[in-house]
Every structure is written in C-alpha cells, then in structure tokens.
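step 3/5: co-fold with Dihydroxyacetone
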Amino acid sequence: MTITDLEFIQSFIRMANDGFALGWHERNGGNLSYRMTSEDVVVAKPFFKDHHPSVPIGIAIPNLAGEYFLVTGSGKFFRNISIAPEDNICIIEIDGKGENYRIVWGLKNGGTPTSELPSHLLNHGVKKESSHGGLRVIYHAHPTNIIAMTFLLPLDDRTFSRILWTMATECPVVFPDGVGIVPWMVPGGREIGIATAELMEKYNVAIWAHHGMFCAGIDFDTTFGLMHTVEKSAEIYFKVISAGKVRQTITDQNLRDLAKAFHVNLREEFLD
Ligand code: 2HA
Ligand code: ZN
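step 4/5: write tokens
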C-alpha cells in the first residue's frame, strides 16, 4: 500500500486523466485542488514528510486554517499525473492563520503548488463557508469551446448563462445558478483570484475570458461533470451557429417548467 493507492488520490488522478483525454489540458494548462477530509488526513499522514519550509500564500484565508489540500504542481503537465503522481501533485497544509502553506507530500523532484493557488484557495474559502464544509473540489481547465465563446459574446453573466442553459435541456438542471464571467485578467495572482472568488459567492462556474473555466463541486464526479456539461453546451452552440439559422430553441417558459419539474431554482434575473 502506498499513498497513491488511497481512494481520494486515485479519484484525483482519474479526473486529471479524463480532463487531459478531452483536450482541456494542453502542455501545463489547468490545475486541480481537493480539500481533504479529516479521514483522508488520517490515512495519508503516515506518508507525510516534514522538511518543507512554510511559504506565504500572499493572502489570508482564515477559514482554511489547518486544512490539507491535494493540488497539482505548477508547470506540471496533466498528461503526466497518472504515470508519476508523486512528481506532479502534492499535499499542502495550511497554517493556523490561513496565511502560509507547507508541502507535506509529493513534488518529489522539487516544485511548487499550482500557479493558480491563490484562486484555488480563495474559491475554497468562499465555498467552504457557503456549503457548510460540503464543497471540496476546485477545478481549472482550458476547454476549447467555452474559451472560443468569450471572443464572440458580450462578457456578462446573463448572456452566457442564458445561451448555455438553452443549448441542452439538462443544462439548467446541472447549473441552475448560471455562470459568472471574469473579464480578461493576468492569471496566476491575487487579483484574478479575488475576482473569481467574488463570482463563486453566486455560482459554481466562473469563466475566464480568453483563458478557461473554474468549476466548484462537492466531489470529483460532480465537479468534472459540471465542467463537461458547460463545455458540451458551448460545443453545441458552435455547431448550431455555424450550421445555419436557428428555427427554434428552449424558451423561457420551457426553462420555468424544467425548474419546476426538477425542483431547482433558476436564477430569476436571468429569465425574461
Ligand atoms: O498553466 O492553467 O492558468 C496553468 C494554468 C494557468
Ligand atoms: Zn489556465
């Protein structure tokens, strides 16, 4: 038994592979983080090593104090995660103030956690609070169609949400809150992290214009499924607009009927 046999690490690796297989992780694109449960920490702890220095996160996230996260490494390729997990991912421990992290396992040949660590941790901070601890996965990927949409449409939450909802009947059920849009910003820092976390107060999906998407979910399946559903919707959008003139679509009344039948609250301000 090694640490990488643990179920949460296996699930993390499978998700990374699936994202790569779908073309969302060219080169070192994308990153993934998972807030470990106390049970995960108990079973993983015997494999921890204690020689890494404490590093500032660059922002204080007090409600993550003492949490452990499994995260991808900066500059690492999703393509390589399953063949050498201990070299491409790591576990970090957040200090008692939520201001510093320390690697406790992984990145065995050196390296640092994902360049988008501020965005991941700020999103986790928001979601831990709003989900009463239930939400554990934050996923960033570069799905082709959703990126392409950000060149064509006005960058507002309502426009994107309405189009994505109406491209396939299950979309409003999968993301009834809609999606938020972050205008183009420099990636990898505190500012884009704050802008994304603000949207995560309202949504489980934040689209970064001309860059990619962030999804949040309670577990690996839900979070991967959310990314997959939104990206598929974007793909349908392109097939439709490039194929001809739209004759009919899902109407606002259809959306209301769906919400009623599936017991979800569609964001009212996005309906006509
Ligand atoms: O290269 O996706 O946003 C990793 C990224 C940065
Ligand atoms: Zn990216």
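step 5/5: annotate
The chain has a mean pLDDT of 98.
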